[in-house]
User: Fold this.
Amino acid sequence: MSPATLATTDVIIVGAGVTGIAVAYHLQARNIRFVILEADEDVGGTWLRNKWHGARVDSEVVRYAFSFMLEIPCKELWNRGEVLDYLKRTLLVTGIDRHLMLRTRVQRATFATDRNIWTVETPLGSYEAGHLINCNGFGANVPNIPTFEGMEAFRGKVIHACDLDEKTRFDGQNVVLVGSGATAISTAPALSDVSKSLVILQRSPSYIYEVDNRLGWFARLCRTLHGAGVPFAGATLRWKNTVEGDLYFLLIRCFPRLGRAFFRWHWRDAATDAYHAEYLTPRYPPYTQRIPKAVGLKQRLLTGTIAFRNGSIKRFGDRSIVLASGEELPCEVCILATGFKLGVFSFPLSCDGLPIDVRSVNWYKTLMMGSVPNYFHPFGCFHCSWTQRVEQLARLIADVIVHVRTRRYSRVWVERKAVPFDPVFRPNFLMREEHLPRPYGLFELPTLDQLVSFRLCTSHELRFA
Ligand SMILES: Cc1cc2nc3c(=O)[nH]c(=O)nc-3n(C[C@H](O)[C@H](O)[C@H](O)COP(=O)(O)OP(=O)(O)OC[C@H]3O[C@@H](n4cnc5c(N)ncnc54)[C@H](O)[C@@H]3O)c2cc1C
Assistant:
């Protein structure tokens, strides 16, 4: 161990968000030693950083919670505080907290082919391990802030949703919320409660699904049984929801007219036909983009505390936003729910001192990247629960590392090769990034993926030496 080396272990995990915790659990279950290096002062990643009003999960708790610590609360969706509490509880209950190094930002990582060792550098010193698992989430997490004419002269405030704090109130102020994705739809009801008026300004409409955040009868039954310690009650609900979600996905993708009719029916009690056609009917077929879930939007549309407008911003006035159509929206606050710039890496990788070129690299099962040895980069998915996929990936990682050990290999990798970039979902933040790693080897249907995709025995792409 060189003087600057702080620890040598089997595996280094970068990041203590949902993914890092899932991976740590499954390594621990297979007696693989690890350390988690986390840049922030606390765990939680996404849920620690995003403090905007109404920040919450879109996936039902039973699918978002880990399978090894399944919880079924009395409501369907957790808010950010509840997710953070849950993650901290998980760390304590599983003992993973003992392997956690907070305030430890990884600056670079390099693989030495003569020793088959990754060395990870942090401001405090370096760590060494045979395998590196990068759970750094959306990498850089830089907010996407468009610029508009007149923005600097605007006498109100322009705030990106990432910089919002749920404690801030906008009493007496008119707020324009720009965007129509998951963030805008989650935050709108909560923001409208702390402002004078709220307009959701969207370039074009999205499909939105409103939930009342209460459990249905089957979920209530499973919750009671799960609480009484009946085995498989929670897992049954989780599987039922997963299969149901996949069936809806397939049905709506195969019969888009049926999907459109469903959404019209869904909004019948809150929007007239004309309002629905103008503000809630997208140009694209349903389920080709992620469908945001709303809680309390219908009621606020009915009472007029939230209104939609379509249009693109031409310029900012003194105290207003002027649309390309000429319409002027008076406001003192403009909140940009315009997403972020997706980055997959928050630190550079190198091999024997040479930088690894990860531009457009093939990304097998969103887990391993072409020609990067002993390196795993698990990533969730956009149209179902993140946790469900990363847990499957975490199990596969543990299987692969155990396989490497028992067969006395020292290296595992996938070959570098060209694969098309053809994601099932094409959100703007994904499509505007060039050279992202290119996923392949998945079905993108959680049911099928869980049954087939994440089995070591079906992974013909892996190479061992
Ligand atoms: C508001 C919001 C709602 C969402 N809702 C859902 C939902 O309903 N369902 C769903 O499935 N997904 C949802 N997502 C996606 C969400 O990002 C994932 O569910 C999940 O939280 C991602 O976890 P992660 O651990 O991969 O990444 P993150 O949560 O981003 O965690 C990454 C961690 O790595 C650390 N890190 C990064 N770089 C370094 C470095 N160089 N050195 C050390 N540490 C580093 C970060 O500090 C962070 O703690 C939502 C996202 C947002 C923003």
Summary: Residues 233-254 form the longest helix (22 residues). The pocket of flavin-adenine dinucleotide is lined by residues 14-20, 37-40, 45-46, 50, 55, 57-59, 64, 105-106, 135-138, 183, 346-347, 380, 385-386 (CB under 6 Å).
